[in-house]
């Protein structure tokens, strides 16, 4: 007993927030062990005392009392350590070879359910996932409200043990695909899953994908709608997002929340997103191609006005374009890094530089600023931030090919992109499928 | 990979590869072959194509668990060499000619200052990348390209009626069937001679319904007619017959006031080239499959790379358009062989197989 306590403390290391207290319950001396930073000790102890009082009143035996306050286990350092790390309290009884893991009162370490911070919702359910896995599961259950939802819990990782939940709708999901995922997860439970990269390695995806294999969302509504389309949702403790597998091309354009509008409006909204993606990929490339390689394709008036606007710009169109695109990327990245109170300064300074100064200084042409603005705006119409990142990256492919081969290069870039998208598949589901029921075995 | 109906993918791929080919040499040949009533040669050609493709698919049906290579090697070593060697050489030659010809067209139309070899390299690199991912990936790329470029093409075709004079349709019928013996008419039939082959290569993995493929061919009839008739309606037969690529010429004459682009030809050519890239990818893939079957240890991606490099060297060695035409003529015997002998040979082999298994059952 004493030896076990010593070994347990050694395993947990010397920590000042580890508490060890002795109490007497039903005449037995017990030792309580846990972290003050994770558990509320006074509340836990008073709850235990209350239970002891009740037990005395109803003349419950000592053995039965131990079972009411927690789960009784044989002595095991491993189990005790993971219980303490989970915020529970280990109770050791003097002279016994059993320990009790008491479900202690937790400190409030999780924020409340709030509005999403990365996806904004117009006229739809606004509550979003937070860092607590159980809360997120609860949100999903509440949203789905169906008896066919299945939840599987795992604990993965060695250095950092993280809980992971795999959720699917048994009525819609393909059993074959779910089986493959479960097998993949169970075979790799010793992998760390603290980030999306490590999680994707655990699921057996290659590191070098330009498009995420997961579709991520903060909204329970989107996660549940994905489940009813047969997809699988993965939640990881401490990550306020749901990973939806498999990710499909159409997810870039369609949100479940679009269905809160009438059909014509929904179609228009989605068309706008498609136009946005095409514009992002094509506009900068067309500028480079038409200025540098194929000016004859343009109408003569247009070609002249482009030429006039570029008068005095000392370098080729591709350098001009890349220069401004990189500056724009810097602005986007910087405004993501800065605290909210300083952000507006940056936007203002960036606006002045891009909008006025570079043109006046004849470093870039007016036309380029228009193209650039259109590209940036169009790029943000895509659903999901990770998709917008991928599209942002792909536009460089078309821009560079356009600089080399003109309009032909743009077309080649689009063909290349199409073939890349067509070659992707996740657990046997092709990326470009609209829906994948009955498609799963291919690929 | 399991089996399920992939008819749509396959029909679309067939149609796209055909569309990529028929807007260049095909109208020129048909216009040259007949004085009037051009619809008859077009429809007759498609009819022959229907019969050939139907026979080919019918033959393939008798071997549901094998692809074309499996069927031909199943007959015996000599037969396999007799059939597969010409097919391989043919596919390779078609690939070479297509890449080289398109590179030439591209240089003429938009990139007069870009060196030819870099255009060839671009075409082959992208097609090779598509081919590396395998048949299903080629089909799915076809779907995406169709979504992107078919509307563009439809727009151009719609616009190309701008200068049409409908009186040129008449006379509807030619009295003599002189076109049948015309050299250009036989050449025009070559437009059909390649696309259908892949139906035998995708077979064991992907199921398709032959009826839908035939329907797809029938659905293409308007496009063949448009390819021939739009130049005729715009210029009249006498003028149209003097042009190298009559359809491309028509598109160059289109003037659209509200468009910021001066040359609508670009859109048409871009769409056609994208379909042609798909066609080249398909050719490389088919050649790769045959080569891969003879040297099974080498990875498909290496074979595809090697084929692309060899094609590149071949293309660079072709000096000018005359050389291309010469190659085209050299290839004619092989073309006839692949287009007329192979499908019917497969059909006969199928019949034999059926009879044999019929005896086995008794």
From TrEMBL, chain A:
Domain of life where this protein originates: Bacteria
Keyword Coiled coil in record: no
Alphabetical UniProt keywords: Membrane, Transmembrane, Transmembrane helix
Pfam families xref list: GerA (PF03323)
Cellular component GO terms held in the UniProt record: membrane
Transmembrane segments: 274-293, 313-332, 344-361, 367-385, 397-422
GO biological process: spore germination
Family, similarity comment: Belongs to the GerABKA family.
Protein name: Spore germination protein
Automatic annotation (TrEMBL), chain B:
GO annotation, biological process: spore germination
Annotated transmembrane regions: 7-26, 38-56, 68-93, 105-131, 143-164, 184-202, 214-235, 267-290, 302-321, 333-351
Residues forming coiled coils: none
Organism superkingdom: Bacteria
Keywords for the protein's UniProt record, in alphabetical order: Germination, Membrane, Transmembrane, Transmembrane helix, Transport
Membrane-related topology note: Multi-pass membrane protein
Protein's cellular compartments: Membrane
Any Pfam family matching the protein: Spore_permease
GO cellular component, one term: membrane
Main location: membrane
Family: Belongs to the amino acid-polyamine-organocation (APC) superfamily. Spore germination protein (SGP) (TC 2.A.3.9) family.
Protein name, as recorded: GerAB/ArcD/ProY family transporter
Origin species: Paenibacillus arenilitoris
High-level lineage: Bacteria, Bacillati, Bacillota, Bacilli, Bacillales
């Amino acid at each position: 007993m004493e030896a076990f306590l010593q070994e347990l403390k050694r395993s947990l290391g010397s920590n000042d927030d580890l508490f060890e207290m002795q109490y007497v319950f039903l005449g037995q001396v017990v030792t309580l062990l846990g972290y003050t930073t994770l558990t509320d000790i006074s509340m836990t102890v008073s709850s235990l005392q209350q239970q002891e009082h009740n037990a005395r009143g109803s003349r419950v035996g000592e053995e039965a009392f131990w079972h009411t306050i927690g789960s009784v286990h044989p002595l095991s350092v491993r189990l005790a350590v993971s219980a303490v790390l989970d915020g529970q309290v280990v109770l050791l009884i003097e002279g016994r070879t059993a320990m009790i893991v008491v479900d202690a009162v937790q400190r409030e370490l999780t924020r409340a359910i709030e509005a999403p911070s990365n996806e904004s919702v117009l006229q739809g359910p606004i509550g979003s996932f937070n860092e607590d896995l159980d809360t997120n599961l609860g949100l999903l259950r509440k949203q789905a409200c169906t008896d066919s939802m299945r939840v599987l819990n795992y604990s993965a990782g060695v250095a950092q043990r993280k809980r992971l939940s795999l959720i699917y709708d048994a009525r819609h999901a393909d059993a074959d695909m779910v089986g493959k995922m479960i097998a993949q997860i169970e075979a790799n439970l010793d992998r760390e899953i603290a980030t999306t990269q490590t999680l994707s390695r655990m699921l057996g995806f290659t590191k070098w994908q330009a498009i995420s294999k997961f579709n991520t969302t903060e909204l329970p509504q989107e996660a549940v709608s994905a489940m009813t389309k047969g997809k699988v949702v993965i939640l990881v403790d401490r990550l306020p997002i749901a990973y939806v597998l498999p990710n499909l091309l159409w997810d870039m354009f369609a949100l479940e929340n679009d269905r809160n509008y009438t059909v014509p409006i929904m179609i228009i909204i989605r068309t706008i997103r498609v136009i946005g993606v095409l514009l992002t990929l094509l506009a900068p490339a067309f500028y480079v191609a038409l200025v540098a390689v194929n000016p004859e394709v343009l109408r003569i008036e247009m070609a002249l006005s482009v030429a006039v606007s570029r008068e005095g710009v000392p370098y080729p169109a591709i350098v001009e374009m890349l220069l401004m695109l990189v500056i724009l990327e810097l602005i986007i990245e910087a405004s993501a890094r800065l605290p909210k109170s300083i952000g507006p300064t940056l936007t203002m300074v960036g606006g002045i530089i891009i909008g006025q100064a570079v043109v006046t200084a004849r470093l870039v042409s007016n036309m380029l600023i228009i193209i650039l603005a259109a590209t940036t705006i169009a790029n943000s119409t895509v659903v999901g931030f990770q998709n917008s990142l991928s599209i942002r990256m792909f536009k460089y492919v078309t821009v560079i090919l356009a600089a080399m081969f003109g309009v032909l290069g743009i077309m080649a870039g689009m063909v290349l992109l199409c073939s890349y998208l067509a070659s992707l598949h996740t657990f046997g589901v092709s990326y470009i499928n609209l829906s994948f029921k009955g498609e799963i075995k291919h690929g | 990979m399991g089996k399920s109906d992939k008819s749509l993918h396959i029909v679309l791929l067939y149609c796209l590869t055909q569309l990529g080919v028929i807007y260049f040499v095909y109208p020129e040949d048909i216009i040259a072959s007949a004085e009037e009533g051009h619809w008859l040669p077009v429809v007759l050609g498609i009819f022959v194509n229907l019969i050939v493709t139907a026979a080919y698919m019918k033959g393939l049906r008798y071997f549901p668990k094998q692809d074309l290579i499996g069927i031909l090697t199943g007959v015996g070593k000599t037969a396999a060499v007799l059939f597969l060697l010409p097919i391989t050489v043919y596919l390779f030659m078609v690939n070479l000619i297509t890449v080289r010809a398109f590179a030439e067209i591209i240089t003429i139309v938009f990139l007069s200052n870009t060196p030819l070899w870099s255009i060839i390299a671009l075409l082959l690199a992208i097609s090779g990348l598509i081919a590396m991912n395998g048949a299903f990936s080629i089909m799915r790329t076809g779907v995406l390209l169709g979504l992107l470029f078919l509307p563009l093409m439809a727009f151009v075709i719609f616009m190309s009626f701008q200068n049409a004079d409908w009186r040129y349709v008449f006379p509807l019928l030619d009295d003599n069937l002189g076109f049948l013996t015309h050299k250009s008419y036989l050449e025009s039939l070559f437009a059909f001679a390649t696309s259908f082959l892949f139906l035998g290569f995708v077979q064991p993995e992907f199921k398709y319904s032959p009826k839908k493929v035939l329907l797809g061919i029938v659905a293409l009839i308007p496009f063949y007619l448009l390819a021939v008739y739009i130049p005729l309606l715009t210029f009249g037969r006498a003028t149209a017959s003097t042009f190298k690529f009559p359809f491309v010429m028509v598109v160059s004459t289109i003037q659209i006031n509200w468009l910021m682009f001066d040359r609508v030809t670009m859109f048409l050519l871009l769409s056609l080239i994208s379909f042609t890239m798909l066609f080249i990818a398909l050719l490389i893939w088919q050649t790769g499959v045959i080569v891969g079957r003879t040297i099974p240890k080498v990875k498909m991606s290496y074979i595809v790379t090697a084929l692309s490099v060899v094609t590149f060297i071949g293309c660079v060695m072709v000096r000018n358009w005359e050389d291309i035409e010469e190659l085209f003529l050299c290839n004619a015997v092989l073309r006839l062989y692949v287009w007329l002998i192979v499908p019917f040979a497969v059909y006969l082999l199928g019949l034999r197989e059926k009879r044999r298994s019929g005896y086995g059952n008794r």
